[in-house]
Amino acid sequence: MKTNIISLLLFFIQFTLSAQEPEENSLKAIQDSIYNQFSVYPQEKIHLHTDRNMYIPGEKIWFKAYIADALTHRSPTYSRYVYVELINSSDSLINRVMIRRGDDGMYYGHLFLSEILPEGAYTICAYTRYLQNMGDDYYFKKNIWIGNLPAETEKNRDRREKRRKVRDDYDVSLLPEGGNLLEGTFSRVAFKAVNKNGSPEYITGEIIDEEERQMCSVKTFYAGMGYFAFIPEKGKKYFLKSKNRDGLEKKFELPFSRNTYSITTSTRNHTHYVSVKKSVDCPEKPLFLFAHSQGLVFYYSLWDHTKEYIVFSKDRFPSGIIQFILFDQEMNPLSERLIFNKNEGQAAVVFATDRPGYEKREKVTSAIYLKDSENNPLPGNVSVAVTDDKDVEIDTLNTILSSLLLSSELKGYIASPAWYLQENAKSRNALDLLMMTHGWRRYNIPEVLKGNYEYPEKEFEEAKEISGTVRSLFLQKPVIGGEVSILSFDGAFGAAQTDSAGRFGFYGLDYPDSTNFFIQAINQKGNKRVELLLNEETFPELKHFRDNFSLTGSESLTNEGADDVKDEFIRKAGQRAQYDEDIRLINLDEVEVTAKRIEKKDEARLQYWANAASDATIYREQIERRNPAYVSDMLFSVAGVRVDANGGISIRGGGRPLVIIDGMYMEWPQEMSSRYDSPLEMVSVHDVESIDVFKGPSAAIFGVRGGNGVISITTRIGDSSGGAEKTSFNYASINPIGYQKPVEFYSPKYDTPAAKNLSNPDYRTTIFWKPDIVVPEDGKASFEFYTSDFTTTYSVVIEGLSSDGKMIREVRKIEVK
Predict the structure, then answer these.
(1) Which domain holds residue 689?
(2) What is the per-residue burial (b if ≥16 Cβ within 10 Å, else e) of 725-741?
(3) 228: how many CB neighbours lie within 10 A of its CB?
(4) Would you say the pTM of this structure is higher than 0.70?
């Protein structure tokens, strides 16, 4: 990664330097400072491409994550895992999955939607451990809609109507252009109004002075944002007197006017105009104008006070946010202004199908060709989603361009970011308001130029770990030189020693989800009277992001049209759900079940040794009645089992039996001096749910190791249905989050007459999903799928990254007759 940074700095850094610059602000000093910051703290960006935005319970959300270097947009970074979460409107976590980077360098998976999820808006969040250094402002976030089936639609519509009548408080932020309200100078001030949920609020109002005299009127332009302009007088206070649509009136004080400088900008056609304004009484002094994009410097020069403005062609900058900073001679920042530059920074996609139109249940063969602006082929990787336009509209408001160029560059949640990148006057004006009301904070450039660098607290997550501490049971002192062993249920084993603080760790782990681990600690003498404390894996507390924007392009989720779109989707989803239910039905011959019904308390036991029948079972109820001091005390009542004074056990006069705890095979020590040395006593009697004893032929299922019989203990900790609090302290059974195993999207093939003539209707909404398309050096790739049963049009959405960091986004249509 450092090599990439060096080459890009040499290629991209462009300076316009004045001969009057002081030596400490030279090209080399600035170049070294920025390179050093990038070296010690490279950063990431993230984007999630989902198959669609509307779902019903029981479906899967298919997604692909793009993790890119923040400077180069090249993928992947050093992060091996990405976490994807679904959060409901009450800020509760619904689902979380961890996706491992594949051998192909890609991250893709799915979120399953439970059958019992209520209707409503949900937020999908995606992040890496390394991105936690930046905070959740830089995570990927977007809202999706989950609807219930048609029978509940009217009830949900009534509930939505009630929600609309709730009266909300609101707040308004007032932000002068360039950061300063200038005394005696015409000044522009942006504002952003949000309600108590953080959603944009529409307001009207006026700017007044201390004597209630009106200076100008105010009205929201878009998404709670707007601006006004006036000339503030020295020493006076000014206020915004506003009212929202509910009629709630409030008063907000403007920042105090100052005697200083401020950057102002305007954009016309293909040109940016940048000015430095000052208060009427502010003296002229040496100032330096600095401009960068994502940390790459494109301009640095002494400001010429004789000029009204300087001109920058859009071609001078890459696509994305440009930050202008005004410095004094001591490199103290005086003013800051962001602009968004639109340029040709993405790959061109040529898309073609083998036919202009298709019949129902017919194969579609598609080809794509990636190229740069000079028609050279581009390698890379892409994901493809094909959806039925009659069921859902495509997501035009969250794209890979808006994620990497906009959302990931600004602090704060941005609803419908791709809307701001549309080519129309309203979007352009709203985009400039976005630049005035949000800050670029990936690096603190003024501090970087002074040599004060930021460092990440978290490293790139390249593997998993399980760690903790071991303390003496009674004195609670660190156990030094103790041994901690770990055993997974698939048989993997490891051991570690505790350090001078009693700490231990198992590092470099990589395991799939639902992997169970059994961890045991002993002291240096082999004594089990220690307490094992595991470090709990923590996750950020994320919230549902409430906004007033549709999932499909309409400006308000609360309008009737948006609700009609949802209800139409839900109606069709009901048909699709019935079809899905039908194809899951399998006709079986009637059979008579004669086996004993498995009680719920037996479920945890049987997961460890299938349906084999033990010779004796001791249940929790029996243990509670007898209240034994040791686990082995419960075995006195089992015929054929002998327990000696030191805890040694034999079954029918044989050797030591195999001991299994929650499916884990335990070892007997070579010598036993007390009952505490027995593997049975690794578990507190209070934690035991059941004990099963296998003798003779019944132990044959355990192979050679069961030759002396088997004693299997199921703990209440190991029971997934719940249980008592742990009272044995030197062991733990855990099931940490692991990587999701890849599951392939099912797309039917109608490649035979029999398949094509199946009577079951094909109600697919997501017609095709392919997240792992590799585009080789020649820039060419292809994919194929079959159409469904309806006359409609399909939207083909292609997103991805080229190997040199160019963004890929293309939307095409396919007609089905």
Answers:
(1) 601-718
(2) ebebbbbbbeebbbbbe
(3) 20
(4) yes
